[in-house]
Amino acid sequence: MTDRTTAHDRLIIFTRYPEPGKAKTRLIPALGAIGAAAIHRQMTEHTLMQARMLLASQSVTVDVQFAEGDCERMADWLGADLNYQVQASGDLGERMAHAFETAFAAGSTAVVIIGTDCPQLDVDLLAKAFGELRQHDLVLGPAVDGGYYLIGLRRPIPELFRGIAWSTADVLAQTLVIAHQRSLRVCHLPTLADVDYPADLEVWEQVNAQRQSNRPTARPLISVIIPVLNEADHLAQTLNGLRSAANVEVIVVDGGSQDQTVAIAQSHGVRTVSTVPGRAHQMNVGAAVAQGDSLLFLHGDTWLPSGFETLIPSALAQPGVVAGAFRLQIRGKNWGLRVVEWSVNWRSRWLQLPYGDQAIFLKAATFQALGGFPALPIMEDFELVRRLQPQGRILIVPTAVLTSDRRWQKFGIIRTTLVHQLVILAYFLGVDPDRIARWYRRQR
After folding, report:
1. Which CATH architecture fits 222-405?
2. Rounded Cα–Cα distance for residues 200 and 313 (Å)
3. Which of 123, 229, 301, 404 has a CB 3.0–4.6 Å from the CB of 53, allowing a cystine?
4. Quick one: pLDDT at residue 175?
5. Which fold would CATH assign to domain 9-201+205-210?
């Protein structure tokens, strides 16, 4: 690795927030929206790891220029140690030309732009790119598909980005023609493959397999995903119960709270993501940024039992088990709550129909293959479980989660139970979920 670079070297990474349906859309036919977003997240984090390794050995500024999301969400995802900027408008060429122009105007003397679609791009190649800019005007990393995965310059050359047929096999050739016309000294890095289409996924699988083989053996990581909306009264206690759990990440996905929910989540040091409201959408967004091998979806007013992080891997390791949930316990002393608990636990065990307040968990790969939670305004947990049932057994862990009794306190046990059963019946009868959701909100 070369030791050449100064504080005026700048690495710019083009990426986007891993929003399902908007990230790696050409992979959606093979992986679904959730799976495609997850691959994008993983490859972006892999690229950032290479950039941080470069930072550790050389003096270089790293900028992340993104489409979709905002600086706060990007920093929550990738870390606050980097510079975040929204990409300029226009096609890819216009955005890159603007990025180079802005970087050089800020005093940079060598600038390299990369994307996050080339998992074979590593820290050594990044260092080589900056090193080659000592003798060359232009450094290019050719891609197998006829484009390039890296471009480096020592000064702005906007002509390189004009008249290019972007997203075609002619990008590199057209760029080299312009470079020749301007008598630029060009350095070619090794040709690598981008991951854009389902046929390219083998490249990522090979790189990821190598990463996994180099990672120390540990218990599977569990991602606890908590969708919230104005949960300031309960969230702190939920998060406090997770502090002692080992090998667990916590992701709070806020849907636009107007109280102190976000501040409470941030004060607990957990990853906090903001998006539009809607429990299904929020949970899918959380799953897209999750790093865990297993996912656990937890309500903001529900508390997990001690040792849940060992119970989940054990449950999912049992033959034929595709997902699981916990037995339900409701806070409160009213005898009617014990009846509710009994009926819920009976239904869950014998009909394999747990609901969201029982903390549903499953493998991340299973969730992605299923396409995540369906885009429903209500009954998303019910529908997810129904789709899981044909794939295997849904295990109910005998240890209980404890959930708040606020719904039963506010509206009464009989009315709350009746409303829930009418919602289920309407859904079974094929009533439009939007209509059910409107009626349910009026009852609350």
Report:
1. Alpha-Beta Complex (3.90)
2. 31
3. 123
4. 96
5. Spore Coat Polysaccharide Biosynthesis Protein SpsA; Chain A (3.90.550)
